[in-house]
Amino acid sequence: MWRRRAVGWLIVSFMVLSFLLGRLIQLQLVSTEHFTDREINLLESSVRQRSQEMIIDAGRGNFLDRSGKPMTYENKSVLILFPFLAKMDWDIKKISEITGASEYSLRYSVEKAKEPFAFGSPEPIQLSYDQMEEINALKIPGVFAVEKKYSRAEKPASQLIGITGQNQKVLNERYPDKDLSSDTMIGITGMEKSFDEFLLPEGASKLVYHVDGTGGPLFGIDVKYVEPANPFYPVNIKTTLDYDLQMVAEKLADQHGIKKGGIVLLDIETNSVLAMVSRPSIDKDNPFGEESRGTVNYMVKQQIMGSVFKTVVAAAAIDHGLDDPQRQFDCSRKINGEPDLKYQHGMLNFTDSFARSCNNTFASIAKELKDINPDLLEEYAEKLSLIGPVSWQGDIYHFNDFKQLQEEEEGRVFLSEDAKKDSNFAGLTGIGQHEVRATPLAVANMMATIARGGNKEMVRAASEVEYKNSTSLIEFRKQKLEGETIAPYTAINLQRLLREVVINEDGTGRWFKDLPYEVAGKSGTGETGIMADGKQLHNKWFAGYFPYKDPKYALVAVNLEVTEDTGGVNPLFADIVKEIYNYNHKAETPPSGSADN
C-alpha cells in the first residue's frame, strides 16, 4: 500500500515540477517579450525594477514648421536630481547659489522623490546656458543640467498633425516584422499616423541609475547616459506650416466663436498649407469622446458648400457661352419660379448675379448645362480640383502611393447617374445643394487653382523628411494633379467674377472692400437639413485669395451647423487678412528712434 502511495506522490511531485519547469521555460525563454494576452515584455519589466531612469528624449520623430521651428515639442534646460542624493552629502549650497532655489526646497524635493525628476513645481525651473555649464562642471553624482524635450501643452494644428498613443495590438498588426518595445508610441490620427513608420523611435535618450530591491545603489553612484546608436535618428517631418500664422489662425478662430468649422490657409506659389485650424479642439482628457469629436479634422471632411459651388457653374457657363452680359435673369424669384419674398434683387445680368449670389441665375444655367451634357458640372468640378483627393500623394522611398493626409475625404457633385439628368436636381446642384460636397481643403485649392490661371496642383502639408542633423532624407516636390484643367481664358474670367463679389456695391463680399490686401472670393451658405430648436442649421463659408493682382494666399473660413442669423465668417476672414498683412509688414516697420537725421 505504501508503495502505491509513494509512487502516486512521486507522480504528483513530478507533474508539479514539470509544470513549474515549463512555466520557468515560458518565462525565461519562450514568452519573455510577449507574456500573456496583454503582451507584457518581461525583459523590459525586469530592467525597470532594477533601475531608475529619466527620459530626456523618448526618441520618436517630431514635426517642424517650414522654418525648422518645433511644432509638437519644446526643449527646456532643466535640473535633474536623483533620489539617492537623500542618502549622501552633496554640495546643495552651491546648487542653490547657481539656481536661486532655496536649500530647503532642494533637500525636501530629493527626500520625497522615489524616482529621478526635473526640479521645480508645477513647472521645472529653466536654466540658462551659463547655469548649465556651472552645474555640470561640479560633477556631482545624481545632479545634472540637461536639455529635456517636453511635449507642448497646447499643440498647434493638433488635428492636422494628430495624436499618438500606446496600443500593443495595433503596434503588432502595423509592424509585425519589427522588434519594438511594448510602450512604443504610435501615430493614431493625422500626420502622426501617415508618417508613423518614419517617426518610430530607434531608442530613448535617458539617464539611467541601477538600484537594488530597496532602491539603493547597485553599482555605486554612477549614472549612465544612454542614447540611440544611430546619429541620424530620429527623423523629423518638416511641415509647410508657418508656426506664427498657425497661432494667429488658432487665436482668431476662438475669438470669433467657431465651435465647429475652421480655417485653411494655402501658399499659392508652393501650393502648401500655411495654417489649418479645425474646431472643436481636442479634449486632452478624452480625445475620442463622442461628444467633443475633437480629433476629427473637419478641414479634410466633405461638407455642404452652398453658393461657393456657383464658381464651378460659372466656369462651365463661360466655356459654353451662357455668360452673355446682355442676358437678364429674374433674381426676385426662387429656383422653382415662385416669388422670393426674402431676396428681391430684380433683373440681373450674369456678372451681377454672381456678385450678389442669385440662386435663380445659377439654377437656370445648371439646367441648361445639363441639357448640353449631364456630366459637365462634374467635369468642371474636377477641372477646378474640387472633387477627388487634393493632398499630396505619390511613390516615395519604399512606399507606394504614400498619402500625406490619409484622412482626407473626396468631394462629389452627384450620387447617381439619374440625378444628373433630372432638371430639379440639376437646379439644386447649381446652387451647391442636393448632393454637392467638398472639403474646405479642396475649396481652398480651387481658389489657388483659379489664382494661378488654371494650373491645379496637389496640396502639400509636408515639404520633406529630415534626418536628425537636418539633412534631407525625402523631399515632397510640387506635383500636378492629374486630369484636365480650365483654360487660361476661363481662369481670367473667374478671377474677374470673384473680384466683383468684393467691389460690387451689393456684392456678398463687399465687407472686404477696404482691407489692406485686395481680396477676390465667393461666399456660401449651405442648408444642412439639420434642425435645432426648430431652426435649420447652415454651413457658412467665405473662400477666396489675395492680393488680387499678385496672388499669394488662398483662404477658406467656414462655420458649420449654425443658424441662419448667426455664425457669419466675414469678420473672421477679414481679421485673418489683416493679420497676414501685419505679419508681412513687420520687417518693414523701422524701429523707434531710427528716423534719418
Structural description of this entry:
The chain has 597 residues and is of the alpha+beta class. The chain folds into two domains: 48-156 and 200-233, Penicillin-binding protein 2a (Domain 2); 243-586, 3-Layer(aba) Sandwich (Beta-lactamase). It is 32% helix and 20% strand. It contains 19 helices and 21 strands. It has helices at 2-30, 42-49, 92-99, 103-112, 129-138, 158-161, 168-174, 190-194, 196-199, 243-255, 310-319, 350-356, 359-372, 376-383, 417-420, 423-430, 440-451, 488-503, 570-584, and strands at residues 51-57, 62-64, 73-81, 117-118, 143-151, 164-165, 186-187, 205-210, 224-226, 236-239, 261-267, 272-279, 329-330, 347-348, 393-396, 399-403, 462-466, 472-475, 520-532, 535-546, 553-563. The protein has a five-stranded antiparallel sheet, with helices on both faces. A four-stranded mixed sheet has the order 2-10-17-18, with no helix packed on it. A hairpin with a 2-residue loop joins strand 15 and strand 16 (399-403).
